[in-house]
Structures are given as structure tokens and as C-alpha cells.
Amino acid sequence: KSVDLNSDMGESFGRWTLGDDKALLDVVTSANIACGFHAGDPAGILRTASQAAANHVCIGAHVAYRDLSGFGRRFLDEQPGDLKADVIYQIAALEGIAASVGASVSYVKPHGALYNRIAVDETQARAVVDAIMTVDSSLGLLTLPGSVVGLIAADAGLRVFSEAFADRAYMPDGRLVPRSQSGAVIHDVGEVADRIAKLVAGGTIEAIDGTMIRIDADSICVHGDSPSAVDMARAVRERLESNGVALSSFAGEGRPCAS
Amino acid sequence: KSVDLNSDMGESFGRWTLGDDKALLDVVTSANIACGFHAGDPAGILRTASQAAANHVCIGAHVAYRDLSGFGRRFLDEQPGDLKADVIYQIAALEGIAASVGASVSYVKPHGALYNRIAVDETQARAVVDAIMTVDSSLGLLTLPGSVVGLIAADAGLRVFSEAFADRAYMPDGRLVPRSQSGAVIHDVGEVADRIAKLVAGGTIEAIDGTMIRIDADSICVHGDSPSAVDMARAVRERLESNGVALSSFAGEGRPCAS
Amino acid sequence: KSVDLNSDMGESFGRWTLGDDKALLDVVTSANIACGFHAGDPAGILRTASQAAANHVCIGAHVAYRDLSGFGRRFLDEQPGDLKADVIYQIAALEGIAASVGASVSYVKPHGALYNRIAVDETQARAVVDAIMTVDSSLGLLTLPGSVVGLIAADAGLRVFSEAFADRAYMPDGRLVPRSQSGAVIHDVGEVADRIAKLVAGGTIEAIDGTMIRIDADSICVHGDSPSAVDMARAVRERLESNGVALSSFAGEGRPCAS
Amino acid sequence: KSVDLNSDMGESFGRWTLGDDKALLDVVTSANIACGFHAGDPAGILRTASQAAANHVCIGAHVAYRDLSGFGRRFLDEQPGDLKADVIYQIAALEGIAASVGASVSYVKPHGALYNRIAVDETQARAVVDAIMTVDSSLGLLTLPGSVVGLIAADAGLRVFSEAFADRAYMPDGRLVPRSQSGAVIHDVGEVADRIAKLVAGGTIEAIDGTMIRIDADSICVHGDSPSAVDMARAVRERLESNGVALSSFAGEGRPCAS
Asked: Best residue in C11, C12, C15 to probe B by mutation, most B CBs within 10 Å?
């Protein structure tokens, strides 16, 4: 039995530091690295990619809407042709940075508002899938279970991987409880570790109303932008390892992450 | 006898259009395409790269300082590590866009203030050369004859190509007359064609003081950001062709520009 | 009888020129000047404001979403508190530029996607109205007849002015025919002048299905971002003047536009 | 005897947080608030301005080169006309934000590379002074003792104030030891408090070679972008107060900072 742990990284920008990439890269097996559109300047992206390569952590392109001031968390009503070109540009730029440190990009995980949008919006989902297919059809796509973009990507022949969120509460229908609702985020480290251990062992998690729901997860997303998040990621990893679960990148199956 | 004609392209941005890339791509043999830092959004860059590929025009990465409001024409006192990462990012992003339309990047031509700076500044020149070597040591570098960056690049093993400027006056020492001085830009199309024809035939051009100077030019730069510039580019091409000079990309020697 | 003519201006950015502000300022009575978020750098805004002041043309703040690459034409799902602050910032910045050339800002006209959004979205509309009230409750608001933002602004005590579009076709219910539909834009200069002359004389315009509809317009919007647009603006102005209609700013009633 | 304490603030941007403005506003008497060009988005600037107003802390416009990715710390070779317009825009935008929370801007402190440049470059210094004079000739200017911009500003009739740096070592000629040299930054809180107490009492400070030098300081700059910086600012304030020195804004003399 094995599972992947992924986290967002490379989200510093110039003078602004966000997240402890170095610490997280000792814990996770997949690094979603910002590509410059919602966060990440080239020098900072290069540093994170280099550390990921040194730790044999797989690199994913964390593509986003072009919105630094909104950190890619605001929906942008972009034309599909523009979105496709934006995604090609971002993946390619990260590939170049990764290659410069002897690494490569193994998968794509859309970020923030784009991630949420293409879980339901077919037009933008198709633009993102087109972009990935155009750059490299062997790239994986990491997304929500049951998302529209996942279906379109699978149809197009991409390898699609789904993720669960370590510290988020779920609705009975499998969607995340919106952050605006109370109880949306689970702060207790032990509780988070318990939930993930059960999910990985049995494929089910307790929804916010107490019902047990099935979540099919190739990867567990642990967030990285608060100091306690590193502790939580570590706790999840330790619990899984003590349960005999191997931590291993989903992307690593088809292609090696770093030499 | 053959020579290359190059021009800056892909310099539109969103709603703002600059230059007539389509017309120029019927005239030139090398296209310096903006990479998004001084100009160029991904969708626009993609359109220009696609037209270049259709016309079998070689593509160069027109890398620049990150300065959209100044169009990369203002010196930016950037640390070499940051500059190196910025250049890797830009080349890689353009390579991805070019690959998506079946083309590739053959050479790098730094833009604007970066072009001028690394003609004399060893630290920044070295950062740019490091970046190119890191991405692909078979890329060419297009620069001023005798520039510092040209010497460093040649030393590092890069193929270095030099260019002359079709519509610019020269100092007796081979430098360009600064734009702030009168007579710096030659507006007469016939005069420009005459000068370039002589330069390509004999390797010399008349400096602003009337002396004849040697300029070693693998390529002639024709500017593209005014309507008359297209006419001038056409006039130069026609004169050269009627003199029996073949127009052919310098970059094409080592690697095919488009299939 | 009098009416106002307004046009968008100050939309150049750095090296990129858009529109012929100088020519338009001989024609219109109100200038919607970009504030830097969708277009306009400070030096360019200053030039346009200075020309507006010299021509005694009233200045409006053309506030927008922060989206240079999309020219403010893409909806951005921004929180109302952020939007309010963005609008305050933009109006204030333009006021400072205007004051530096002896002019002032008389009104606010939201731009592009923000203009369309707050015609129907109450939350964002309220944020914009709050921002205007906070900066200066004597500022006018220029908007679509019957828009949500117009109702909220009037309720709040702002002076609200409505506009018709010179070259756009109307639906029978008074909305604009979307640009994506054929016939949405009227290109014939004489036809445009006819329609506007009738509208100003009688308050009605022919909709795309041939029915006559009422449009209450304090101002006529003539676009400025194509060469022919200046000709169209001139034609509208000449027709109105030859019909004995005075061209006069709506904003000028309450406050002088420039000394 | 009294002195001012100033610190940089409002330097967060979107998702990125920098400095503890709330804590610093309990300590300092003048807040240099970012204006959006090197840092600061409107909503964040508004929050900091509001807290400054609540604490009766004077607000200064921390104007900068337009360079978010470089945080305004890289020299940008900008034309004086462009720089002047950029500075007018920034001061005006901050004035509007400040006015929206019942506060006002009392002075201007150029930031980072602009601060350093106009200490020696007459052309850019003149552009900044022109901008300030144009916006409001009653604004103060906070700068290095003996700077070129200070001389030009005083000549133009601006009130000029000079500052010393709490945690920086000085050369015997009164310049700061460059950050690249060892010993440039003093980390010991007690030592910093001692130095500033002596400086305020006697007008002298010990240079890095042990000689005592005169520094004429209307204000002491305490940095704000690290957690320990708040402790240092508090230690300086406590030492001064226990020595009977009143903390009071230089800008407050001529105009009240907040009601």
C-alpha cells in the first residue's frame, strides 16, 4: 500500500517569503511549484526546484490565472485560447527551470480559482487539457475526484490522479465544505492524521454530517503556507509510515522524478 | 554570398498591438520574439511563433529585463543570479510556445537595455551566457560586434553572431550614434538600402563623420515597430536580392528552423 | 437642448499607444481617463489630463479591475472590500495627476468588465458606490440607463448620469446587442450620426428588431481606439451641432471642469 | 528634547504579509507607507493607514520605482518626466487612501534604490522634488543628512528632515556601511539602544572605525520587516523615554497627523 503527499511550493515572490519549502520537501513526495502567474519569481522557483530535485521529490506545474495581487484565488473570465496559451507558457517556463537543475516536470496541478473553476467549467477545463496535451501528453494531471477537467483529461488520454485534502472537511456529496463555513478547516493535527490514515487504509472519510463517504485519492494534499502546516504534514507522514503505508509519488510510476 | 535579416516581433501585449508581424515575416529570415518580460502575452507570442513557423523563419528568444511599463528599455540593476533565472525562464517559456506550433528556438537576442548593458557589463553578460548554456548550449547568441557578451559567449563555446543596424548611424569606432543625437536614425529608405548593400558586399559602412569603417555582420537588424519599417525592411531585402545576395538565417546553419 | 460626448482615453501604456487622445479632445466634452489598472501609466495619464485641461474637457476616472494583460475586459471575482480600496486608489491617483496640471476629476465611469458587472451585480456595485462616496460625494457616476449601480448610487445621493453608445445596436429591452452577435457594431458613420441625432432630439432609438425604444441619455459614448472612431466622433458632433444641439458636459453643471 | 521614530509599513501585497504593522504602530511616530509600486495593494495600504490614523501616527508616502518583483531595491534608469509622474501618482493614491480613513499624508520618504539614487543623482532627485512640489509644497521630505535630494528640496522650499538608522553601522564620512560588508548591520538590541540614546542626546555616533561622527537626525529609522525588528524598535523607544526624550513626529510640527 502506498500513497503520495503533495504540497504547494515556490510561492514566494521577490522580497516576500511564503511557506517553508525546504522543510516540506523533507515530508512530501510531490511538489506543486508555482510558475510565476499567481506567485513565484524565476530565481525563487529555481531554488525550490533545485531542493525538490535534491530530495527526489516529483515536480508538478502549479499553473494559475495571471493575478499576482489576488494570488490566483479570484476567478478570471479568460477566453479559452488565451488560457491555453497561458498554461503552455507556464508549464514550459517551469520545465526550463527544472531542467536547469537536472529535474523535470511530471504533472500539472492547476491552482486556486483555476483549480476550482475547471472542476466544473467545461470550456476552461478543455483549454487546460489542450494545453497539457500540446506540451507533453505524458504529463499527469492532479485534480479533484470526479472533476470535469479530470473526465476531459482522461478522455484525451492523459493520466489523471485525484487528491484528498488533509485538513479540510467534506460534504456528504464529496465536495469540500467551503472555507466560509465553520468547521471547513480541521486544525487538530491528531484528528487530521487519523482521518488520513483511515482514508488511505479504507478509502472512506467522515463527512461533516457524520456520514462516511468514499474518496478515491492517489495523493493527499497538505498545505504549506503556515508554520503549523509543516507539523501537520509531518504528522500525516509519520502516521502513515507507522501504519506501514509507503510514501511514493503517483507521478513516479511512469517516469522518474529526478536522477 | 548570403546574409540574415532579423527583426523584433511578438511585442504586442493584450489589447495593445505593436508592429506588423505578419508583414515582417514575409521579409525577414530571423524573428526575435518577445518572451513576456518587456512585451508579449502568451497568446500573442503563440500567434507570432505560429506565423514564423509557417514562413520557415527562425525564432530567437528576445529576452529582457522584467519591465513592461518601460518596455525593457530601462537599465535595471539586477543581481546576476536573478538575471540568470529570468533568462532561463524566458527562453524556456518561448521554447514551449514554439514547440506547441511545431517550431523551436534557435538563438537568443537580448533586448533593449539588457542588450546594451551586456555589451559592456561583464557580470550581467556572464549571467546571460550562463543562462543560455544551461538551457541549451547549441543556441546561438545574436549581439553587437565586439561586445563583452559576445566574447564571453564565444569563450563558453556558444555560437556567436553579430549584427548591423539597417537604419542607424555609426560612430567612427563602430558604436551606434546614440538616439539622443541628431542623425542617429536614417529615415531615407533608399539610403538605408544603399548602405546595407555596400556593407554586405564589402564589409564596410560609412560612419557619421564620413570615414569608412569595418562592421562584421552575420545579420542585418530591421526594426518592426512602425509602418514605414516594413517598407524599409522590404527595400533592404529587394536591394540585396537584386544584388544576388541570398537571404538566409544564420541560425539555420546548425539546426533547421521549422519543419 | 444639449448633450455630452464622452470617450475613453489615456489608454496607452509605456511603449504602447492606443487611441488618438489629442484628436478626440477636440471633439468630446468628457474624457474617461484610465487610472493605471487596465491601462495608463502615470506619465501618459498626465499628458492626456493636461490636454483635456487645455481643451476644457471634463475628466472622469475610468476605474477598472487590476488586469493589464486583459485590459480590464475580463470579469475578476474580487471581494468587495478589495474592490472598494482599488477604486479609491484609482480615483485618488487620477485626482493627483489632474491636480498637477490644474484640472480635477468630475465623475467616475467604471471600465469594461467592471462596468458590465456592476450594471447587474449588487455586491460589487455597492463596493464601487462606497468607494466614490468615500472619496468625494460630489463626483458624478456615468453608467448604463437602469443599471443596478445607478440605482444604488442615486440612493446614496450621488449624481447619476446615463449614456447611450453611438455605434452599438440595441436589443428591444434596451440592452446592448452583445459584440459576439452580428450587427452589434454599426460601422456606417452616417447611420451612426442619424441614430444619435434622433436619439438626442426625441429620446428614442431603433432597436435591432426595428422597434423604437426609449433611451434616457445624458451623454453619448464615442469610442476612441481606432482611427475611424475619431471620424465617427466628429461626424456625430457635427450632426448634433448642425441640428442646433449644444455639446456640453453633464459634469460641468455642478462643478467647473477646468479653469 | 524630542525625536521621531519612523518605520516602513504597508509592505504586504495580496497573499504576502511583510512586517507587523500593528505592533510597530504602537512604537513609532511616523509610518512610511508603501504606495503600490514596490509593495502594497490598496486594501492592505488602507488597513495600515487606518491603524496609523487610530494611533495618531503620522503618515509618509514611501514612493518607489515601479518594481514589485525587485521590491524597489534595484536601480531603474527612468527618465525624469516618467519618474516625476510616477511619484505624483503614488503620493496622490496614498493621499486618497489616507483621506478615506480620516488621515492625511504629511511627508514623503523615497524607498530603497530610489532613496539611495537621489541621495547622489541630481536629475532623478530634481524629478522627485518637482513631483512633491507639484502635489503639495507643505509636504515634508525625509532623507539622508547631506543628500543631494535634501539640498534640492530645501532650495525649492520644502521642509527637509534627516534620519539616522538605528541598526546600521556608519563610515567615518557619515555614509552607511554597505550591507555587503561585515558589521554593516548591528543585531544587538542593547547596543542599538545605546547608540541611538547617545546620538539623540549628543548628536554623535561611533563609526565603524571607532571615530565619533556627527549625525544630524530629526528621526530614527527602525526597520520593520523582521519579528526582532519590533523588539528593537520597542527597546529604542523605551531607552529614549527612560532618558526623558519625548517621541514626537517631525511632521506633526507643521500639520496635525490625524484628528
From this structure: C15
- Cβ within 8 Å, pair C42-D134: no
Mapping DSSP to helix (H, G, I), strand (E, B) and coil, where does residue D19 land?
coil
Instruction: Provide the terminal-to-terminal Cα distance of chain D, rounded to the nearest Å.
Output: 24
> How many CB atoms are located within 10 Å of the residue A88 CB?
26
pLDDT of residue D188: 92
Angle at D199 between CA D194 and CA D204, to 5 degrees: 120
E strand or H helix that includes residue A83: helix A80-100
Q: Report the gap between the CA of A115 and the closest CA in chain C (Å).
A: 14
pLDDT band (50, 70, 90) for residue B254: very low
- For residue range C164-199, what is the model confidence (pLDDT) as tens digits? 999 999 999 988 998 889 999 999 999 999 999 999
Closest chain D CA to residue B73: D77
Half-sphere exposure of D124 (CA within 13 A, CB side): 20
DSSP SS3 for D215: coil
CB contact under 8 A, D69 and A13: yes
Q: How far is C-alpha D5 from the chain's CA centre? A: 9
Instruction: From residue A231, give the alpha-carbon distance in Å to each of A9, A224, A246, B61, C110.
Output: 16, 10, 19, 43, 46
Nearest to A15 among D14, D15, D71 (CB): D71
Do the Cβ atoms of B128 and B110 come closer than 8 Å? Answer: yes
Give the best residue of D38, D65, D67, D121 to mutate against chain B (max B CB count within 10 A). D67
Determine what percent of chain D falls in helix, strand and coil, rounding each to the nearest 5: 40, 20, 40
Within 8 A of C70 by CB-CB distance, chain B residues are 14
3-state secondary structure (DSSP) of residue C203? coil
| Residue A36 near residue B89 (C-beta atoms within 8 A) | yes
Any alpha helices (H) in chain D, and if so which ranges?
A: 21-24, 42-54, 80-100, 112-118, 122-135, 148-156, 189-202, 227-242
pLDDT value of position D125: 98
Q: Angle at which helices C148-156 and C122-135 pack, to 10 degrees?
A: 40
Burial of C210 (0-12, 13-18, 19+ CB in 10 A): exposed
Please check the confidence at residue B253 and state whether its pLDDT lies above 90.
Answer: no
Q: Find which of A15, A45, A73 to mutate to test the D interface (most D CBs within 10 Å of its CB).
A: A15
Distance CA C119, CA C113 (A): 10
User: Which domains are seen in chain C, by residue range?
Assistant: 2-253 (3.20.20.370)
Residue C256 confidence (pLDDT):
53
Please write the tens of the pLDDT for every residue from D219-235.
999 987 677 889 999 99
Q: Do B77 and D75 touch (CB under 8 A)?
A: yes
With contacts defined as CB-CB under 8 Å, which chain B residues touch D77?
74-76, 113
Specify the DSSP class assigned to residue B254.
T
CB B14 to CB C41 under 8 A? no
Please answer yes or no on whether B74 and D74 come within 8 Å at the CB atom: no
* Cα B209 to the center of its chain, rounded Å: 26
- Measured between beta carbons, which residues in chain B are less than 8 angstroms from residue D69? 66
Mark the ranges of chain D whose per-residue pLDDT is less than 50: 254, 259
For residue C76, which residues of chain A lie inside 8 Å, CB to CB?
67, 70, 74-77
Contacts of C127 (CB under 8 A, 6+ apart): C80, C81, C83, C84, C87
Q: Which residues of chain C have pLDDT under 50?
A: 254, 259
Are A96 and B46 in contact (CB < 8 Å)? no
Residue D253: what pLDDT? Answer: 62
* Least confident window among A45-49, A221-225, C219-223: A221-225
**How large is the ipTM?**
0.96
Number of inter-chain CB pairs under 8 A, A vs D: 37
Query: Across chain A, where does the E strand assignment appear?
Result: 2-9, 30-34, 58-62, 105-108, 140-143, 159-165, 204-206, 212-214, 219-221, 246-247
